[in-house]
Specification:
By secondary structure, this protein is an alpha+beta fold. The chain is built from 18 helices and 5 strands. Helix 1 runs antiparallel to helix 10. 39% of the residues are buried.
Length: 488
């Protein structure tokens, strides 16, 4: 025999009690109202409980869902007031609250989380505009709600569209969810929205002329009871299933269009009754979508520039990495080819670095690299100079438009600066030192940057071979490559 989920037992008991009240009262409307008010209140309480457990109310959406349930319960309370003689004012208030219940749900679906405050502000303004249009549109149509009247049909269409939008977009957010919290919330919301869409369609299209108190009332509570069960259940411990990247990006990018699209549709309905108000809705929706899209594009450009910068910075030493250095080398080579300026390249290698790592450990080696990087960068002070981590314990410095003596001075300053740090070393000197290889060219007239790099590497090799902690120049000391001659 299949087991019944414990969270479903209270819901089954609720439905049984509701059915019993209808049968015992002989279909009296007042027997149904307490259950129709209690069901959304239970859903609101469960959503609030879940929101407080999450500690981040607006981002999780549970608080927005709780507000929606409270608005719907208030609408049913207004319907009860009308049944007790509240008149047309109670009827209009009831219809208004039924429509406004979808506004916080719309905001929760449109909000993708982790967005800048100004994007949230635009969403809030769009939600306020949407709620205002809903309210005015409902008040206008509430003057005649006899079944079959044009106002009744227009309001029913408004409710159908609102419910359809919420169900479709909530389901899309669920299918594209990437975190357990997101999927839990939108699983609950999409299930509720789809059930509510079907129930509201049945009630509004087939039982609109039937008073409360009959057995069809039982299905009205079902979506709210289901949401209460889902919100009360503990969060799923299972990791979220990763959607396809394209689908996730599509839903995330399209989420910011949900509010403007809903506002455009409602404006199209309102414009038939209040042309000026509908026109204002069109303008707000268009401006909201446009400004939000522009701000998102600006933010995308800023993030791309930031990532591009990070891609050119060495993560450990926080100076330019090899990629940045090679791009600078190509750029300066072409500039020297055009202008005839000089170019100097230094390759700097930490002496006995492998022994240092083996003796003191890699964390100590990392701190040495960071100190050496800062000291080398401090020696190349011109804005056109580039000091980069070339790889491992090797650094490179590119010095454009500098004389040979100036390049030698910078190289010696780097060597002396590292020695002056007095960083401990297991080598014979007892302190960290570096070897420097210098390649210098008066003017680039052809060839390739790799040739200059090879010369600096050869000079560094000689510095290592001749005792380390010294500067050596490439041979010849001054180089100039000629453009290759065309053979006729």
């Amino acid at each position: 025999m299949p087991r019944i989920d414990k969270t479903a037992l209270p819901a089954l008991l609720f439905v049984a009690l509701h059915a019993g009240a209808i049968g015992f009262s002989g279909g009296a409307p007042l027997a149904s109202y307490p259950f129709l008010i209690a069901a959304p209140l239970l859903a609101a309480a469960s959503c609030l409980r879940r929101a407080w457990r999450g500690q981040r109310l607006l981002e999780q959406g549970w608080a927005a869902a709780a507000l929606a349930m409270l608005l719907w319960a208030a609408g049913m309370a207004m319907a009860l007031w009308q049944a007790m003689g509240g008149g047309d004012a109670a009827s209009a208030a009831s219809l208004l609250l039924y429509v406004l219940y979808g506004v916080p749900l719309t905001f929760a679906i449109a909000s993708v989380g982790n967005e800048a405050w100004y994007l949230r502000l635009i969403d809030v303004l769009l939600v306020v505009a949407l709620g205002t249009l809903y309210a005015i549109h409902t008040v206008i149509l509430a003057t005649d709600q006899s079944v079959g009247s044009q106002s009744f049909l227009d309001l029913r269409l408004t409710l159908d569209l609102e419910n359809l939008f919420i169900a479709v977009f909530a389901l899309a957010r669920f299918l594209a969810g990437t975190t357990p919290n997101t999927r839990d919330f939108f699983r609950a919301l999409s299930g509720f929205a789809i059930a509510y869409l079907l129930v509201a369609g049945v009630i509004n299209h087939f039982f609109a002329d039937v008073d409360y108190g009959g057995y069809p009332d039982l299905i009205i509570s079902l979506p709210f009871l289901w949401l209460a069960m889902r919100a009360w259940a503990p969060p799923s411990p299972r990791p979220a299933r990763a959607p396809s990247p394209r689908r996730g990006h599509l839903v995330r990018a399209g989420s910011h269009l949900f509010l403007p699209l809903t506002l455009l549709v409602i404006s199209a309905l309102v414009v038939a009754h209040e042309p000026w108000l509908g026109s204002v809705g069109f303008v707000i929706a268009t401006l909201g979508a446009g400004v939000r899209g522009m701000l998102l594009q600006i933010r995308t450009y800023e993030e791309r520039d930031h990532l591009d910068t990070l891609a050119r910075i060495d993560g450990l030493t926080r100076i330019p990495n090899r990629r940045h250095f090679e791009e600078s080398m190509e750029r300066e080579w072409r500039r020297s080819l055009r202008s005839g300026d000089s170019l100097a390249l230094l390759l700097v290698d930490i002496d006995h670095f492998k022994r240092l790592n083996d003796t003191y450990g890699h964390p100590a080696g990392d701190r040495i690299l960071q100190n050496v990087a800062r000291a080398l960068a401090a020696c190349a002070t011109r804005s056109s100079d580039t000091v980069a981590r070339y790889g491992g314990e090797e650094f490179a410095a590119l010095l454009p438009s500098i004389g040979r003596e100036g390049a030698l001075k910078v190289a010696e300053a780097m060597r002396a600066a590292i020695e002056g740090l007095a960083l401990p070393s297991p080598a014979g000197t007892g302190r960290i030192t570096v070897s420097v290889g210098l390649a210098y060219i008066v003017a680039v007239e052809g060839g390739y940057p790799s040739e200059l790099l090879a010369q600096a590497d050869e000079a560094l090799y000689r510095a290592k071979a001749e005792g380390r902690n010294c500067v050596r120049e490439a041979t010849p000391a001054v180089m100039s490559w000629q453009r290759p001659q065309t053979q006729v």
